[in-house]
Amino acid sequence: MKRKGQLFVISAPSGAGKTTLCNMLLAEFKNISYSISYTTRAPRAKEVHGKDYYFIDILEFEAMILKGGFIEYAKVHGNLYGTSKAAVFKSLELGRDILLDIDVQGAMRIKQETGIGVYVFVNPPSIEVLRERLQKRNDTAGENIDLRLKNAEIELTRFMHYDYIVENNILERAYRQLSAIYIAETCKCALLDMKDE
Ligand code: 5GP
At 97, is the pLDDT very low, low, confident or very high (cuts 50, 70, 90)? Predict the structure, then answer.
């Protein structure tokens, strides 16, 4: 039986371990791809254009907004980030699942505007742990850790708008929860493409 792709949206404050969890999911399951966002943020040391992000300037970003190229976009920690509308819908039509690692503003916009998707919030153990992780991360030099922590406090109050919450105290347990959500949500009858039967 053919089925439509499922849209997975994952949000978490910076340093909550969301990227690690996303990479584990992408490594285990082959029918899900990562939605590569567009951003005006400068690339970090190991980031690759076209893999981690499409790094573009503000004028290019504004041109994409004008031609309706984003399913959502938002200013996050002082930089612009946006999700390609064409990439998301093409993937879903082809029956491939797609994973969006985006902030709370973007997640809520997609939820309101499309009415589809599975929304997962990754909860960090505490703000202190976030601070420690952000300070230890040596790829964010020059980025504003205090601003990221201030935004984290706001984001942590928004989890009730999501379908699932994954507590990331112990990575293995958090990943078991995330993969269980993925497996269950991709078995939903509502995703079946009945017109082909
Ligand atoms: P970072 O700069 O650490 O890669 O990402 C900062 C924040 O921007 C993270 O919370 C990440 O989920 C979010 N983000 C990444 N891509 C997008 C996007 O396309 N749209 C929105 N709204 N947020 C994004």
Answer: very high
